[in-house]
Amino acid sequence: MIVGIGVDLVDIARFERTIERTPRLLERLFTADERRLPPRSLAARYAAKEALIKALGGSDGVHWTEIEVTPEASGRPWFTLTGSTAAVLADRGITTVHLSMSHDAGLATAYVIAESALPSAAFLSATPPDDGART
């Protein structure tokens, strides 16, 4: 069952300028292996990490350097998660995370789908919140 979807879009030139102004961001956002990549690949990985956080519904317990985007032998990107970030997914019953990334025309984008093997009742409230917005 799908329990979260996230998408992010990054302007590569703007991302590169931000990194040039604040080089310490590289250490806060990326693993040592990721930091060796060119700016367009870093921008796509930043988008992937943002999309994962959105699919999770927030960043509580998630640390950027505990999320690494690596390619499979086929070239397909996937997440390697460690530490408290891996624990967050396990605690939420997330068993599969799908990732798609691309960069073209100065933009990097990523889509993430988080799935759980748990029954839907584990994620749904028995009574929806009364926010007054329903008609």
Automatic annotation (TrEMBL):
UniProt-listed Pfam families: ACPS (PF01648)
Localisation: Cytoplasm
Record field: transmembrane: none
Enzyme category, top tier: transferase
Domain spans labelled 4'-phosphopantetheinyl transferase: 4-88
Cofactor(s) required, per the database record: Mg(2+)
Database matches in InterPro entries: 4-PPantetheinyl_Trfase_dom, 4-PPantetheinyl_Trfase_dom_sf, ACPS, Ppantetheine-prot_Trfase_dom
Biological-process GO terms, alphabetical: fatty acid biosynthetic process
Residues reported to bind Mg(2+): D8, E50
Single GO cellular component term: cytoplasm
Catalyses which reaction(s): apo-[ACP] + CoA = holo-[ACP] + adenosine 3',5'-bisphosphate + H(+)
Keyword terms, alphabetized: Cytoplasm, Fatty acid biosynthesis, Fatty acid metabolism, Lipid biosynthesis, Lipid metabolism, Magnesium, Metal-binding, Transferase
Origin: domain of life: Bacteria
EC number: 2.7.8.7
GO MF term list: holo-[acyl-carrier-protein] synthase activity; magnesium ion binding
Role played: Transfers the 4'-phosphopantetheine moiety from coenzyme A to a Ser of acyl-carrier-protein.
Protein family (similarity comment): Belongs to the P-Pant transferase superfamily. AcpS family.
Protein name: Holo-[acyl-carrier-protein] synthase
